[in-house]
Amino acid sequence: MNSNEAIVVCRCEEVTYGQLRTTAEEHQCTAREIKLRTRAGMGFCGGRTCRIPLDRIIEDVLPNVSQGDIPLKYQPPIRPVSFGTVGEKND
Amino acid sequence: MTRIMDHPILGKLNDRKAIPFTFDGKTYEALENETVAAALLANGIRTLRIHEESGTPRGVYCNIGHCMECRVTVNDQANVRACLTVVEQHMVIESGKQHPTIVKRMVEQQ
Amino acid sequence: MMDVIVIGAGPAGLAGAIASANSGLKVIVIDEFIKPGGRLIGQLHQERSGEWWNGIEESERLHQEAITLSVDIRCGVSVYNLEKDGDLWNVHTSIGTITVPFVLIATGAAEYPIPLPGWTLPGVMSIGAAQVMTNVHRVQVGKKGIIVGANILAFAILNELQLAGIHVDRIVLPEKGPLSGKAGEPEEVMKSLLHAAHLAPSPLLRIGSRFMKNDWFRKTGMKFFPKNGVKVNGTPLLLRKAAIEVIGMKQVEGVRVADTDANGTIIPGTETVYEADFVCIAGGLYPLAELAAVAGCPFQFIHELGGHVPHHSETMETPLEGLFVAGNITGIESGKIAIAQGTTAGYSIAKHAGKCGAVIDEQLNQAIQNVRLIRMQAAIQFNPDIESGRRKMSELWEKLYEKPANLHSTQKLG
Q1: Which residues in chain B are closer than 8 Å to A45, comparing Cβ atoms?
Q2: Which B-chain residues 23-52 have CB contacts (< 8 A) with chain A?
Q3: B62 interface with A at CB cutoff 8 Å
Q4: How far is CA C176 from CA A30, A55, B40, C112, in A?
Q5: Is the pLDDT of residue C380 over 80?
Q6: Range of the domain at A19
Q7: DSSP string covering C29-65
Q8: Quick one: which of A11, A23, C92, C140 could link to C81 by a disulfide (CB 3.0–4.6 Å)?
């Protein structure tokens, strides 16, 4: 199990399975809270790769939470854009 | 890596023009209309960047623009996805480098 | 001004654009990839009739038809936000904001990742990445590879890699645990392969499936599953071996694998290393619904459809006025279904736009029937319980959004 603790779950911020599991257990976190506490899912890809593994960890740690209960939350921009492009409307 | 020149169902790769580009200062050849990721892999290059903080090597993971792992610098524009960017003549491509983490080190030392 | 923006130039998006344009609407299609076709352009498999389903040809056909109808197709453009502004939608893209009364989201699917030690090494990729590199870009992803994860998509792509002369050495399972879910449980994997087996799209799967159909084998099968696996088109499928770690200094050099018991639990002391220069992670597909989510569309988690799907009707409407969906965003199914759903959405939009009078009802009805027909005849069924998943969504829609008065005015489909 030791090597599994070191699995990088969030590739962008290099947050490991061990860190996530410990945080989830300690704080009994929601999916949103675990992101804020560990920075998992907050990196360059915006959680596009690790959102589902994160949900699975929460589901495994918290009693009575299944994947379907975890709300599907996305914030724009959902793709990388330059500040220039986003600011365009306010010019 | 090898290009798949002759495919039993998809047929032969039709004559596509070869175009030069550079990656980290070295010149390579791409085929017209192919992505940076495909051109680099065809030249045997898998590592497109190293993680900004830890320096671990990274390459193409999803190949369709979701994972952002293949981001490189193209003609001085940083964070361009190699898997969605078509190579152009004399394109200058740089791999992603490690960044100093001064603030983080300072916080850790406190 | 445009009438419709279609997000995603895959089978569903192109078919939707064609149906809308056919009904006299002005349509623009946006796609992030360098060329139209979506995941269709990676697909290549043999139908039960023996004919090849060539995704590149199919998407070229759809693309040409759309162009003939003056559909404006823009590739290499990203959509990063979507918001309602009165009766219109503002679609924010990397080439500016496009304002339209109707939006069709046809963004398809994304792959479930299965994190394992070493998976950040260059040379580890999602199996879909290997498919695109091979069939679309025509560059070999490596000389010798290992697939982690056994499902119908993995088998289809295995076949495609082999056609391109790439050696896939073995298929193993991911290690059992919360990150891999059912993909790491040999019996669950076996069960899902059994369901898929009779629908096998090519001889290789049907041959492989023969032994799996046997009831006795299924029950005791995992216990006695051959240590050296069974061959799927020449590649050993090892349901009793789990990938523990991808190894390599600067890129993939191999995979450390261990034997497991019938439940997928690692047997200590059985570790070996298989050499490889690439690894494909095959976790399966889920609907890519992020744009519908930022638009504010309500969702339902339906396991049979592959995950969270936006609420939608059989006519491909969402509860948000002017917002439509089609293809894998509504549930994981084949490209053929996506085309049929796209056509339905396209006519549905035309109907809402008040186009074509009485004919449109007929066209829409036919399109819906066609989706059902194609589903019944499907060669590749990603989820055996797809029908039940679809039923759940239509019951939910009926309960939440169909006003009793509508039951009299609109024709109920059987």
Answers
A1: 66-69
A2: 51
A3: yes
A4: 24, 17, 35, 15
A5: no
A6: 2-90
A7: EEESSSSTTGGGGG-EEE-TTS-EEEHHHHHHHHHHH
A8: C92
Partners of residue C32 in chain B, C-beta under 8 Å: 64-65, 84
Whether residues A77 and C119 touch (CB distance < 8 A) is answered with no
pLDDT in tens, B24-60: 999 999 999 999 999 999 999 999 999 999 999 999 9
* Whether residue A77 has a cis bond before it, omega within 30° of 0: yes
List chains touching C (3+ CB pairs under 8 A): A, B
pLDDT, average across residues A59-66: 85
Give the separation between CA C375 and CA C334, rounded to whole angstroms.
9
- Beta carbons within 8 Å of C246's beta carbon, 6+ residues apart: C116, C117, C118, C119, C121, C124, C252, C254, C255, C256, C279
What does the pLDDT read at residue C30? 98
CA atoms within 13 A on the CB side of C56: 12
Q: How far apart are the C-alpha atoms of C177 and A60, rounded to whole Å?
A: 9
Residues in chain C: 414
Q: Does residue C204 have a pLDDT over 50?
A: no
The full set of domain ranges for chain B reads 6-109
CA distance A86 to B65: 19
Q: What CATH number does the domain located at B6-109 have? A: 3.10.20.440
Total domains present in chain A? 1
Contacts B38 to C, Cβ<8 Å: 133, 137, 139
Structure tokens at C73: 């197709």
Domains of chain C as residue ranges with CATH: 4-110+286-409 (3.50.50.60), 113-283 (3.50.50.60)
- Write the ipTM: 0.94
pLDDT digits (tens, 9 = 90+) for C93-106: 999 999 999 999 99
Q: Does B104 touch chain A (CB under 8 A)?
A: no
